[in-house]
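Internal tracking record. Fields below are filled automatically when a chain is submitted to the structure queue. Please do not edit lines marked as system-generated. If the sequence contains nonstandard residues, flag them in the REMARKS field before resubmitting.
Queue: standard
Priority: normal
Entity type: single polypeptide chain
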Amino acid sequence: MAPFLTHLVIGERVWAALVGQVSNLPSGQVTNLSNTRQVSGLPVGQVSNLPGGQVTNLSNYGTFLFGCLAPDVDKFCDGLEQGTTHFLPKDRQRAPLRRHTRYFLDHQTDFLRAPFADLTPGEQTFVRGYLCHIATDEVTGRLGRTLQQRLAAGGAPLPNVDALLTAIDPRLWAKAADPEAVLSALAVASIPADTWTFAPHGCLTAMYRIVLPQVQEGGGLEPYLRMVRRHWYWLRHGRVSDAQDDPDLEADLTAHRRHVEADLPRAERLLSEIDLGDLVEQAVQHSLQVIEALDGGYHSRVPGTLRDKYRESNRL
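SYSTEM-GENERATED OUTPUT FOLLOWS
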């Protein structure tokens, strides 16, 4: 499916960098967040306004975090393809041409209901989170190709992808600076309607209801399988439910469990050889570069900024 908790951990750090070193909690207290830095001129060390005048609060944080999950809405919407939700340009041989984020920055009006600068503050926050997911996928995709080549050299295939994602989520969730704040924010997230021209609001809402319990349970095999049941129930019956009243679905879920369980030990061993902290840092830095390119105007070159570094690293 997707490493939803992994995307949230990276989103937590990106959000902290965007708004400074503090975040409002439901109790009204202020908590320090780690791994912060100054981006796009946002002041560090105080509650600050995002570009567009949006003041940091729990609901805004939740909207950003749901944006970090939303690109996988294609899996929850019949007829919606990953190539659309992940900005994947392809040639006639269907080979990727360039980075997905670069393609989006060059073709924003093909995907957004209006130019980014004309969106509402809430929509802009949602889009920033969405791009955080896409940027992270670019980093993890490179890692996946490296691992695949390394294993292939030894005559071994990659473990089942769902086993890998099920194994990585709890490991990275343990690195969250304030998981309770993440959960509290997601619980009050708003989902802007029609921001993306391709993503029906009903599919996004269903995705939220299907994925949120898995996040609240902290990931792992059983929460993942319960999420899959809700997901398949939605696709087969058009409503979100934990009901176990579909014998065919339950039989398919049992078979899926066997496939994932068979590869979990190998997935765990492979992940133990990876510096996940470095992976998170790379994803955070790349996400910040992409977001600054978006906020600052991708075609306005300013030497020495993260935006400029992003442009240099994405030359065709």
